[in-house]
Each structure stands twice: as structure tokens, then as C-alpha cells.
Amino acid sequence: MARLSQLLPVADRIDRLNAATGRLAAWAALFIVLVQFTVVLLRYAFGVGSIWLSESIIYGHAALFMLAAAWTLRDNGHVRVDIFYSDASPRTKAWIDLLGSLLLLLPFMLVLAWFSFPYVQRSWTILERSRETSGIPAVFLLKTLIPVFAAMMALQGISQAIRAGNMLFSPPVTPGLDPEVHPISQDGLPGQARQ
After folding, report:
1. What share of the chain is helix, strand, coil (3-state, %, to 5)?
2. Which residues pair with 190 in a beta bridge?
3. Under DSSP, is residue 184 helix (H, G, I), strand (E, B) or coil?
């Protein structure tokens, strides 16, 4: 069996990808505030409304929440039932993370991706536009965020499972000893190197 620690670079790459995407999506918050301020100013100061600007706020919200969700999961920022998790030992937390990723997160994201694909595909086929004449003509891009969200969350679930599995199933490493040169014996003490 390959050691799970060899998969840690994969988990690191997933974490970096989701963090970079999340940081980029976080700029949507500033965009939302500025556009909302502009919409209010135009409406109440000048009596002018803009469907395009109003719809762009919806696009900004969607981009922010859908693209930053995996980054939030990576940083343990999602709401969870902390009754058991917060006071649990690191091993218990690792079990919860592993089972939660494999039994809940990944299956749900696969189902979401599966059912959203035809929905998004139809939208791309007709290059779906806003129902409003002066709205944003890119509803197909907005709907594309659904499978992108599912993919990013699934990747983060894989990263979480790798890290939890590594903690649970990899042998402890004694500082200063290379596990390949000084393997851990059955009793947990550094043993002799294999010939």
C-alpha cells in the first residue's frame, strides 16, 4: 500500500488552487458593495435604474459564494455542529473529516455535478440570456458556476480525506529519523533498516 504521505503534495496543490480561486473571488465582495452603492445613488439621487447593474450584483454574489466555498472549507470556516468536533482529540477530528468527506461531501458533490451538467449544457447550447431586454446576456456563465462549485468542493474533500487519512494511517515519524532508513517496528520503536 502506498503511503498516504506521498499524496500530501496533491493535497497541497488542491489547497493552493482553492485558496487562489477563493482570494480572487473575494474581490467580488468589493465589487458588490461598489455596484450596490452606485445602484442606490443612481436610483435615489438621479431617479435612474439599471437592470444590468442590478443583475451584476447577483452575478457577483454567485461568484463570491460558489468560488470561495472550497477555500472556506479548507480554512474550517463553514458552519458545523461543533458540539462533538471542537473538543475532540486530533484523531477523532481526523475520523470525522475522513468519513464526512468520503460519505457526505464527495457523494453530494458528485450528485450535484451529475444533475447540473444537463442544466448547464442546455444553457450553453442556447447561450442563455437574461429575461430582461437590458439584462446581462450571460446566464450560461452564471449557471456554469454550479458544476465548478461542485468540482472545487469535491477536490477540497479529497484534500481533506488525504490529510485525515495520513494522520490516521501513516506511521508516526520520529524527528531526526528517516522512516525509510529507520522503519518503525511493531512495538512503535525505531527498528533496523531493511536489507
Report:
1. 70, 0, 30
2. 184
3. strand
* Strand ranges, E, within the chain: none
The pTM assigned to this predicted structure is: 0.81
What's the pLDDT score for residue 193?
Answer: 46
Q: What is the pLDDT of residues 4-47, one digit of tens each?
A: 778 899 999 999 999 999 999 999 999 999 999 999 999 999 99
| C-alpha triplet 41, 47, 49: angle, nearest 5° | 75
Contacts of 21 (CB under 8 A, 6+ apart): 67, 68, 70, 71, 152
Annotated domain spans of the chain: 7-78+85-168
Q: List the Cα angle 6/9/15 in 5-degree steps.
A: 140
Q: Are 89 and 112 in contact (CB under 8 A)?
A: no
DSSP codes joined into one string, 99-148:
HHIIIIIHHHHHHHHHHHHHHHHHHHHTT---SSTTS-S-HHHHHHHHHH
pLDDT above 70 covers a percentage of the chain that reads 85
